[in-house]
Structure formats: C-alpha cells, structure tokens
Amino acid sequence: MIFDRPVQESWGYGISVAQMLELPELAGTTCVAGAAGLRRRIERLNVMEVPDIGPWMREQELLLTTGYPLREDPEQLVDLVVELDERGAAGLGIKLGRYVDELPASVLAEAERRSFPVLTLPDLGFDDVLSVVLSEVLNRQSVLLARSEHLHHELLQRITAGEGLAEVADHVSRLVGARVLVTTADGRVLVETDRTEPGRAAHGPEGIGEDDGLERDPTGRVRVETLAYGFSDGPPQRIVVPVVAGRQDHGRLVATATRRTLEPADEHALRRAATVMALSITKQRELAAVESKYEGDFLRDVLAGRAGDPEEVVAHAAMLGWRFGQPAVVLVAQHDDPPPPFRPAAGAAPPQDRFFAAWRSVVRSADPGAAVVSLGGEVVVVLGIDPGRGGDVRDLVRPFVTRVAGDGGGGRRTFCTGLSRVFTDVGHLPAAYEQARSAVRVGRWLQGPGAVVEFDSLGIHRLLSLVSDPGELAGFVADTLGELASDDAESEDLRTTLQALLDHNLNVAETARHLLFHYNTLRYRITKLERMIGPFTTDAHLRLNIAVALQALSLRSVSEVLPQRVPVARSAQRGSGDAGRSR
C-alpha cells in the first residue's frame, strides 16, 4: 500500500541536493561550499557547454560542468555562481582535474555567502549522473502522484459512506502528517484537527492554537486575506489551498507542519483533498438548506399560531433539537441597509445566507438547543435563558453580536439586533417575536446602524416609532421647542436644563443641586426657557408636549430631518402657551 511508507520521509517534486549526495551511484560527490543550501530542490539537470549558460538555466536546475568554457579564467565562476543563484538554480556540480584543477577561494566564498551548493563530482560520465538523478526524480514524482490519487480515492469513499468534513479533515491530517484547518471564505473556522495531537478533529474555534502562526482577529476568525496560496517554508511550514467547487468559493484548507517536514509537492495532494472537501461542504449546505426551510416553515407556523397547542409545539421543537420548554427570549437581527445586487458569478453565497450561517454557527456553538432560523430578510433566534442569571439580557447576546459582526463572518454590512422580554410560556412566543422586531425598528431610529436594543428599554419611543414620517415628528419638535431645537451649544445646554427640571418634577432646589447650579442661576434659566417655549412650569399640557418633543429629538431619524425645518416664531410659542394656560 502506498501510504505504508513512513510519514517522516521527505517526498517532494524532485529531490533535494542533500538527497542527491546520498545516492549510492554518486558516492564521492562532495559539497565544498554553500552547505546551508542543501535543501534546494533538483527537478532537472543541465550541462554547461558555453560560457553564457545563464539565460538558459531555470529554477531548481542543477548545472554540471567540467569548467572547460571557463578554463582560461576560472575566476569567472564567481559571476556564474551569482547568476545561477539569482535564477533560482539548485546548485553547481563541477568535475575537477581536466580543465580546472581547483576552485578559486573567491568562488567558494561567494557560494558560501549565498548558501548556494557547489559540488565536486567523482570521475563519472555526465550521462551517468543525468540518468541516476533523473530516474530518482521520476520515481519520487510517480510515488507522489500515486499518493495523491490514493488520498483522493479514499476521501471520496469516505464522503460517499456518509462521513462529514471533520472526519475528512482528520484523515487528511493523519496521512499528510500535518495539522489541518478548514475555514469559510471569510475565515470562520469550520473544523480544525487538534493542535496537540494531529489527527484529532476539533469543531469550531474552541481550542484553536496560538502557535500555528496564523493571524486571527479577536473573534477567532482567521485573516485569510493575509494568506498566500501554495507552499510556505515558514516557520512554521504551511500549505494553503482554496476549497472551490465550480465558481463557488467555499473557503481555505490550511495544513501546518507537525510530525514531518512539508514539501512543495504536498500541495498537489492537498489540492485533491480540497476538491473532496468542497464536495462535503456542498453536501452539508444542501442538507442544511432543506433542514433550514423545514425549520423556517415550522417556526413561521408557530409565530402565526398555526402549529397546534403549546404541548405539540414543544414536542415538535424537541424533534428539531430545540428546547422550547424553558424561559427564553426572541432575538431578531436585520441588516441596516438594502442588500446590494447579488451576482452569483462572483463565487460567494448571497449576503443573507452568509448572515444566517454566521448566526447559526455562533449561537449553536454556545447553545445547541437554540432555534436559529432565517425568515425573509431577518434572522430569528429563540434563545434559552437561565432563570437564575441576573443582569441585562443584552450582556448575554453582545458576545454573539461581536462574533457575527464584521470580520466575525456576518459580512461587512452593519445590522441591528432586537431582544424581546423573557417569556416562559411558548404560547407567548408570537408576542415576543413582535417585541423583538419593534426593538429592531425603534433601535435603528434611536441609535442608528448597529444598535442592540431590548424591548423593555424602549419606553415612549415605541409609540414615536409608529409615526412613519420622520418629517412629521420633526415638525412637532420644531413647533413645540422652537429655536430651542437648534443644534448649537447654547440650545443643547438649555435642553439639558429643561430635561433635568422635568426629571425632578420642577423642583428648583433639587434640580439646582443635580446640575451643580446656584439657585438664582437656575431661576434665571427657567425665565429664559419660558420666554422661548412658553409657561411650562404652570401648563401641564405644554410640559407633556415638551417631554415628548425632547424624546423625539433623541431619535436619529428626526435629528437628520430637523435642520431642514424652520423653527416657529417665539411669539407663536408664547401664544400657544398662553392659550394652554387660559384653558
């Protein structure tokens, strides 16, 4: 069996200069300079017949010579060494004694400085050297191709037998002798073989090693944009290949050396493995799509009250792996801006699919019993809550939001997150869903993109958000506050004073202490405020309008429209206040 060969053996395209020196047929070949470069690979050989051989040399080629073209001036070998090294040649083999008796010290010094191997050959014909080395190269390449074919065939058998991505990665890790990591196209870790024992698969970002040299952001996402495809000699040694099926970019396969030295030729086997992994990911996605549609239909029926009585809903949810018979909250996440046109040819999944996949991965890794469903343009999560936990529910979900947002896998588009009240009866789930949606809508108005809002924190903003036209609210603010609605520093300072007075029920002494004002200073400010907006200290209706207007002014959508409005005249404001007082 091909894989019965010890995994410690170093198999690569061609052979290294060091391996050439070990061939029995070439006994007597000696490295006289540049021994630090013995790992250079030999894939082909050439014989020097003319002095200007350099332009005909290629990378990983060993040049053989008797020194005849340079016999008149052996010092020219220095220039030859320089040119060969710059062209990526594997080394220089020279047969001494016929035309060049010994190598000049300058040649040896330059080769040593460049770590460029210079070999002295025994009394063998160049045809014998060519035959021996090329035969070894071809033999090794045939073994490598056979190994790759065997790996590809075995992995396909495992996929057809029902094994998943983790099992495939585990098998690749054991056969290649490296730690294997598979990520999505944006760097989220799908599976990683155990960093302490290659060959053991670990799902998700838990236990990710810090010693593999990969750049990761705080969420655990691998910065795949910093990885170059192909072989990297490290340290650590690494091979990165794309996981692609057709035009669909599924991610990256990263192999990091552990039990053996990786070779550039291992990339061929890993590319074959990546093809099989793409099939596994495609299979998993298709199954997940069917499962997601079924789960979405069920949750949609639950929210519409068509799924039966609570006992039936809990039982059906348990079949899906959801735990509905416990205290829970509903979380709704929606992108803030309209989705850009999706072009399938770009090779990426639709933004909403990536958004849902990110939420599903993040939430399920923390709570396998949570329901995570994509409904239209939003992601809905039913998350179990520990009855004994204290604190703000938002503290529970903020880590989820952080991991999904931006580099965490949800894409670069911002999104708002709304949370319902905690409910204990599954029959209250539809109402909790509407609460979470309201929290998203109001949070976007109040805080702008990226808001995380709990329904119980909305207060009067719940009602204000029902006004569909921000211009109408802006008009109400301008009519009520007049020039006090301006965005200059003085108006903002006066609004702070006004809000403090309302918060302290117009108690001048308490408000002054709160604002650290002198009592008379606050009395002066009250007089100034009443000249601007009317007698709010004696008119309860006016105070109500002012309180609502101040809250409306905090809405981001209103503040964007308000600068376009022209505040009403002060006299009109005072008249409005007088009318309220006469009533």
Automatic annotation (TrEMBL):
What is the phylogenetic placement of the source species in the record?
Bacteria, Bacillati, Actinomycetota, Actinomycetes, Propionibacteriales
Domain Purine catabolism PurC-like intervals: 20-136
The UniProt record lists the PucR C-terminal helix-turn-helix domain at 494-552
Domain of life of the organism in this record?
Bacteria
Q: Please give the Gene3D superfamilies that the UniProt record associates with this protein.
A: PucR C-terminal helix-turn-helix domain
Q: Which Pfam families match?
A: GGDEF_2 (PF17853), HTH_30 (PF13556), PucR (PF07905)
Q: Which organism is it from?
A: Nocardioides zeae
Please report which protein family the annotation says this sequence is part of: Belongs to the CdaR family.
Task: Please give the residue ranges the record annotates as the region Disordered.
Answer: 196-217
User: Which segments constitute the CdaR GGDEF-like domain?
Assistant: 305-442
Its protein name is Purine catabolism regulator
